[in-house]
Amino acid sequence: MDDQPKEETTDIESLYAETLQKVERGVVTKGRVISVKSDGVVVDVGYKSEGIIPAAEFTDKELASLKEGDKLDVFVERINDHEGVVYLSKDRAAKLRAWENLTAAQQNGSTIEGTVEGKTKGGLIVACGGIKGFLPASQIDVKLVKDMDSYIGKTFQVKILKMLPHKQGPESQGTSMVLSRRVVVEEERNKLKENTLKILKENAVLPGVIKNITDYGVFVDLGGMDGLLHISDMSWRRVSHPSEFFKVGEKKDFLILKYDDSSGKVTLGYKQKKPDPWLTVDEKYSAGMKITGIVVNIVDYGVFIEIEEGLEGLIHISEIDWAPRPKHPSKYVAAGDEIEAIVLNVNKNERRLSLSIKQLKQKPWELIAKHYSVGQKISGTVKTITDFGAFIRLPEGVDGLAHISDLSWTKHIKHPSEALRKGQRIEAVVLSIDPARERMALGIKQLTPDPWVNEIPAKLKLGEEMKGRVLKIADFGIFVELECGVEGLIYSSEIDQSIEIKENEKIRVKIIKLNLDERKIGLSTKNLKTNEK
């Protein structure tokens, strides 16, 4: 009786053992979640004892979402029959599965996804399915990458060039693979190039992405191959720098101007997508036509105006203002201003369009002829002083000349600067106007009556003695300003040598000559009634 139960038990254990999986340490197997506890997750791996995965291998979110019956890949770390526990690891299982997948990817040459985690000497650290690999700087792209920091955090496709032995791989704390992104990029570019070459021909329009901008042009990725768009082919308008029109990363359509099959060079055009505006310039514009344009460039000799895209006209500095000496063009307009102008000349062959803005205004000398008359009093500013006179700028922007002989009735003026200074605001009288020759004569002394007509003859008598102030001592005589404000000359032969005479001092003189017609007064210091100064 005692032996019978033993035989039944043995038979049951034998039957139960046949249903168990052969679970061994160091292998990856499937497990079924039985329960989630605070210290870990209890998993059935088909062994007589239950397995447990430490809670530390799960995130809070993963623990919250686990439920009974969920399937997991687990790694059997050790079996403790005495404790009745199988110690499992989800993380190591994931690494081993990932390693198997990576090994297969290397063997069949397929691409894998990797995320850049950091930078190291000579390259980048890339994580692929939890396994870290080394991406050398030379394998990041088809061209040398200078700024590797910009790749950190990015995810892209790579290929495995080399893997470490199995035991060093997934268990290693360092990198376990040598990767290449360059191979993937080259393969993609080769495929794109094959497709691009099928449609690449002169005058074809292809989409492209701006890769690089230089001073002389931009390089465009047409899909597996690059083309050069020279600065001269960007726009019919004036281009100072390619960055005015394009930005790196922009996608545009480009015209194929030339393709050299032997060298692989592609020359692109952008402005050629639109007709050259100069071909029909003479049909659209003619002399005398009023136009509106935008100031696009200001130079010392004038202003360039864009009338329409690619069509510019020049307003020469001489056509900006009616003033005899115009200011710098920047004093009249600023870049971006919209202004009106008159077409002066159209030269299609030389691609020149001459414009004027001063022609929109009435000529100043026409205004002068209307607004001024001889004898009229005017006011202006001394603009220029010369040896023969001073030019007075009027409000209309023209200059009238006040000759040196018309500065004073009585004073002997050798240079106009003795009576006037540049920038001085003065009044004058119009003596003559000649609009055809653009001339106007002005007089300053004419603001007052001519003293030689009545005043001087009434005050001065031949032989009369009076006081005067010495103005200047010359070799031929001494100029003296008499009390009445008129100047006279002491002839050198009429100087009393016994008297010392100095400039600006007052002396007594005698009138020995009075010529009203020639407006000259002769003086003497000899034979005076008294030598009192």
Distance between the termini: 175 Å
For the largest sheet, list the strands in their spatial order: 1-2-3-5-4
CATH architectural type of the largest domain: Beta Barrel
The average pLDDT score comes to: 85
Shape: elongated
Q: The CATH topology of the largest domain, please?
A: OB fold (Dihydrolipoamide Acetyltransferase, E2P)
Structure, described:
The chain is mainly β and 533 residues long. Helices cover 14% and strands 39% of the residues. The strands form 6 sheets. A 5-stranded mixed barrel has the order 1-2-3-5-4. It is elongated. The N and C termini lie far apart (175 Å).
What distinguishing features does this structure have?
533 residues, OB fold (Dihydrolipoamide Acetyltransferase, E2P), 6 domains, mainly beta, 5-stranded antiparallel β-sheet, 30 strands
Secondary-structure topology with pairs:
Elements: H1 3-19, E1 28-36, E2 40-44, E3 50-54, H2 60-65, E4 71-80, E5 85-89, H3 90-108, E6 112-120, E7 123-128, E8 131-136, E9 155-163, E10 177-180, H4 182-199, E11 205-213, E12 217-221, E13 226-230, E14 251-260, E15 265-269, H5 281-284, E16 290-299, E17 302-308, E18 311-316, E19 338-347, E20 352-356, H6 364-371, E21 377-385, E22 389-393, E23 399-403, E24 425-434, E25 439-443, H7 455-459, E26 465-474, E27 477-482, E28 487-491, E29 506-515, E30 520-524
Parallel strand pairs: 3-5, 13-15, 18-20, 23-25, 28-30
Antiparallel strand pairs: 1-2, 1-4, 2-3, 4-5, 6-7, 6-9, 7-8, 9-10, 11-12, 11-14, 12-13, 14-15, 16-17, 16-19, 17-18, 19-20, 21-22, 21-24, 22-23, 24-25, 26-27, 26-29, 27-28, 29-30
